[in-house]
Design brief:
alpha/beta, eight-stranded parallel barrel, two-stranded antiparallel sheet, 15 helices, binds beta-D-fucopyranose
Length: about 450
Amino acid sequence: MSAITFPDDFLWGAATASYQIEGAWDADGKGESIWDRFTHTPGKIQDGSTGDVACDHYNRWQEDIALMKSLNLRAYRFSISWPRILPAGRGQINQAGLDFYSRLVDGLLEAGIQPFATLYHWDLPQTLQDEGGWPSRNTAEAFAEYADVVSRRLGDRVKNWMTLNEPWCISFLSHQIGEHAPGWQDWTAALRAAHHVLLSHGWAVPVLRRNSPGAEVGIVLNFEHVQPATSSAADFHAARRQDGYFNRWFLDPVYGRYYPADMVADYISGGYLPHGLDFVQEGDRRTMGVQTDFLGVNYYTRDVIRQGPDNMPQPVDVPDVERTEMGWEIYPQGLYHLLNRLHFEYQIPKLYVTENGCSFSDGPDASGRVADQRRLNYLRDHFAAVHRAMQNGVPLAGYFVWSLMDNFEWAKGYLQRFGIVYVDYETQQRYPKDSALWYKDVIANNGFSLHD
Ligand code: FCB
């Protein structure tokens, strides 16, 4: 029986995001966010639900910390709701909002769990949206002020900061595809948004360092492992473009390489940038490429790409593969390849898997047991992939499962359950699934046997 063992200081954790779990959408002085506005607009969310209550974590945070402790978690990645802190986006500070996160951080530290705080996981104050949102440079300036307010209060205790979660989703999914708030469908706006997201990251990093001595600071990007469907030149070209759109458009500027030239040329010739990169100002390249301590990697699936109509990349549905309920192919080797690529092509000093997980809707039986063997298998196979990458020298310091508990899955509402803990939304009772109990043992043993 072969065993896989991780380094002693490997950080095992779980992740969540404010809007997906907190609820209390208008409590104690919180301002409206673009997700409040979006979910309150009929037709935007598949099951018509909202995050108004979600997992009621705002009121149940102590119970949730006890739950994390019982699962042996060493780290917890959560996000901070900007409009809870600055209801109008900038200016007036809502102390009750800061108090909430301050208590949460104290509770985590008391429980021996390291807090990993993300400043932005998509709940932009609606006021800033009304002033132009991410397509406007104003939002990036406001973000640096928000980073300052939060880190002044929490910077003595939070020692791991992530500026933003998934710039691709903030810009393209929300402004070009329109599936997420604010629901625009405008390529140029999406490209402008992407730039201001990257700029806001660059401005926030030195602020966090100043207010949080000794802290490590990074950003979280989401990646798809892109592969061409065939060996044809056309599919290879389509895969290059997909990788540029999804991965390199963010990765390259963050690592000081500026926007990839092939993609700039594609966007200009495609008419997506009628005024070129006119939103880029002197010094932005250096700002976006600010030195960071780590990269957060979110990985769920691979993308097999062929050339579609109009020479655009088109995803291929690979037949006969196992998929999660999101429809995403289960492909752990993609995580192995991705981590290697990041290490060898970008020489990133430290990496964390900040999200990885799967949606399956298994619920509790009469005894309260949740037999989610498919999730357990998913995690086990991805842990093995990560371990293999580490043996190649990839400096991976930790892994955060998405998610600690079932929660509001954005445009899918409550239809998708990603948690290792089941949430009964009627009673708000939490039920650790089999995968959580298995994970607890993995953490205790710092590894597992391949026959588990
Ligand atoms: C990621 C998000 C996270 C969750 C997972 C399933 O893109 O960061 O909030 O929705 O997908």
